[in-house]
Amino acid sequence: MNVTIRRLTNAFIIFFLLISGVAAYVQIGNQAFFNGPALAASSLDPRVCDAPDDQPIRGTIYDRNGVKLAWTVRDNNARCGYRRVYADPTLAPLIGYFSYKYGAAGLEAQFNDYLAGTGKGASPNDELNRILHRPRHGNDLYLTIDDKVQQKVAALYESNSAVLRGGGACTDNGNANGSIIVEDPNTGQIIAMYSYPYFDPNKIDDPTYWAQLQSDPDHPLLNRATQGLYDPGSTFKTVTLMAGLDSGQYSLNTPFSLNDATTFTTNGESFPWFDYFNGTWNGILNDNSFPITLQQGYAYSDNTIFARVGVNIGADTWLKYVRALGIATPGTDVSPVPYDGVSVQSSAYNQFDSNGQPTQFTSNLLAASAFGQGELLITPLTMTEVASVVASDGYLYEPHVVSQIVPYGESRNDVLPGGDGIIPDKVPYGGGPIIHSQTAQAIRAAMWSVVDYGTANFSPNPVSGISLKQSGTHEGGKTGTGQSGNEQPETWWISLAPDDQAPGGAPAKYVISLHKEKSGEGACQVWVADDLYQSLGA
Predict the structure, then answer these.
(1) Rounded Cα distance, 45 and 47, in Å
(2) Which fold has domain 144-200+221-402+424-538?
(3) What band does 360 get if pLDDT is binned at 50, 70 and 90?
(4) How many other C-beta atoms lie within 10 A of the C-beta of residue 71?
(5) Domain boundaries in the chain?
């Protein structure tokens, strides 16, 4: 027994001396068996960082053509030994940023598990690789974004092509806050998403730059395309037109007399057609031009007609179609249209009134909402989907910006459908069409009339002298000027191209929504979309 105790005591003494030697080696020599020199030389925070050789290398983000948009490089001066590099700052509001100091935002946050190779995105061998100090890698993301188109969008947005050419109705608003979305309506793939102002994610770890971003009144960290809520103005007449036509209560040929088209009162509130009375349509319309049709009312953007249509079809019918587009209405459970980036849900009216009581959706609030005012708070993404429903014969295919999740070292061509690998296209929101195909076709005809003789036909191109309908893109759309008190109105243009209801048109390949904050008439932006369609070959 004494021999056994003596041997055990000697073993403990040897083990103690071994541990003491390792401790002295680490503390005095500033070394460690694994990654000691790197740990000592870096600013690693053990609460958030593994050793550099054990730190998972974040996956790369590519555009649809394999162009690198975001990737990780080794940097001993960075907090965890690595830093993120971003190729195109115009995509920053969409892609976001990743920082060991300030966290993550945008797609970097939404897909963090996959990019970091943790949680549901971890490799089956990740824990073993960590224990054995093997290289660890996150998954790569391939986006639906085309960076060439993105850069074209940015250049056009910030140029004078955004100004109504020749008419003098607009000022140079190239630097106004706002957004542009380009989408394939037949798949839900978003080709470009631009939000202005944007920020430089390569500088995100700079405390001074970070403080500037936090205090900037223009909120460059906000993705205005998906998180900005605005008065949609007359673009929302498209939703009212959907409800009126699809419910069978109206047709494009429904006539409106002079009185019906210019004056309407409900619940004690009047809705005159100011643009008619103030002479906007002098030389085009006069008292002898009536009756005019619902299609003409859409082309001329007649608020009175659409206030009347909204009230006549009734709140239940109008709200049914609003909810079908994923727009929230207080007191009901409306699922937002799924989107894989960061977004907020559009809403039809406030939950509470100025007295703190539940909002009553009265007939005058319905009337104002039906032509795009009232209490509507709508994102540009929602208005893109409105145009997409029209372009795709009534289906709202769920919008998305990620197309593939590819494990490190694998080819995107080897990723099979199913699971998390390939994000499916053509997933219909609600499981079926939002409106009948005949309704969508009729609205495309109305959108073409806006270009043919309506609000988008005010001014020719000063370079070529042609009107928008002669540009060759066969673009149809709807202008909007969202009134925001005494400030300049919100500027909108939603469109599709080509429009098969135009002479020589064809099924739509793209939709473009363009919005600028407090920038004047909606017609000011039609040439931006036309230039983009030209570059896309629509």
Answers:
(1) 5
(2) Beta-lactamase (3.40.710)
(3) very high
(4) 16
(5) 144-200+221-402+424-538
